[in-house]
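Bumping my old thread because nobody answered last time. Still need a sequence for this structure:
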């Protein structure tokens, strides 16, 4: 089964977890975990938010940390990673960032269209601007071309005047504008409902959903899948697996043992959120 890309969830699970990030503060030698991995803490925090809100995880971070963290240290770092992620997700800094993200991405109500008369006035102003531009361009034309252009402008003026005096057409325009405003308002309300469902003010339901999605992805990964070299890169022999999401592939690359550890930590975090 292929998990849709929008369900990719690494939040702190892959981006901070499987990659070995952590910030319980320091290891036994007292060195900061972020610094030892060659990562910028602000960048990690921004990545946490972007993945939580639906972006794919940046693969380069995965490779960067995997190269920096020795294999025999990854299990301990993994636990530190989740300790940091859980603490950060529950803190005021993340709450502030998430609130700012919601404000920026909240659906905006469309500007209400004015009535037919106001619309005609706006169109007329644009028409006058275009006519003035055309007359300026006519100065460089031959007399015959200017005569033809003048004739065309007279016809345009006559059509505009007839349109303004057509009460039936104005009534139809008025109705069309009213219907468009009603449609825009209805669409805005629907978008707002979907936004509030997908990104509630309290981020914990969203975090629970992402963790559940991550566990679901873990359960579909075939760690025995075969790879082959193609164009200098290792690719899955099965085209369906090659079409899998970034999340699925990162779990595969992390390996079954690491994925099992991450899955257990994700479930523990999920259980804590459900209490």
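Sorry it took so long. Here it is:
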């Amino acid at each position: 089964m292929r998990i849709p890309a929008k369900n990719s969830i690494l939040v702190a699970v892959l981006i901070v977890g499987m990659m070995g990030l952590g910030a319980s503060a320091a290891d036994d030698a007292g060195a900061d975990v972020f610094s030892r991995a060659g990562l910028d803490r602000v960048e990690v925090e921004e990545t946490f938010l972007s993945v939580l809100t639906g972006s794919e995880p940046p693969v380069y971070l995965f490779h960067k940390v995997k190269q920096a963290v020795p294999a025999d240290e990854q299990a301990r770092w993994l636990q530190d990673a989740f300790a940091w992620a859980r603490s950060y997700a529950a803190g005021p800094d993340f709450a502030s960032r998430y609130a700012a993200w919601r404000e920026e991405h909240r659906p905006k109500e469309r500007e209400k269209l004015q009535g037919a008369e106001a619309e005609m006035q706006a169109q007329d102003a644009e028409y006058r601007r275009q006519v003035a531009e055309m007359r300026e361009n006519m100065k460089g034309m031959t007399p015959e071309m200017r005569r033809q252009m003048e004739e065309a402008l007279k016809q345009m003026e006559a059509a505009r005047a007839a349109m303004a005096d057509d009460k039936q057409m104005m009534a139809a325009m008025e109705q069309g504008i009213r219907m468009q405003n009603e449609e825009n308002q209805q669409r805005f309300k629907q978008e707002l409902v979907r936004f509030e469902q997908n990104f509630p003010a309290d981020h914990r339901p969203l975090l629970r959903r992402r963790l559940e999605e991550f566990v679901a992805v873990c359960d579909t990964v075939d760690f025995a899948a075969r790879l082959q070299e193609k164009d200098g890169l290792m690719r899955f022999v099965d085209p369906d697996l090659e079409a899998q999401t970034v999340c699925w592939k990162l779990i595969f690359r992390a390996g079954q043992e690491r994925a099992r550890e991450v899955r257990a930590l994700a479930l523990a975090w999920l259980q804590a959120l459900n209490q």
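DSSP finds 13 helices and two strands in the chain. Let me know if any region looks off to you.
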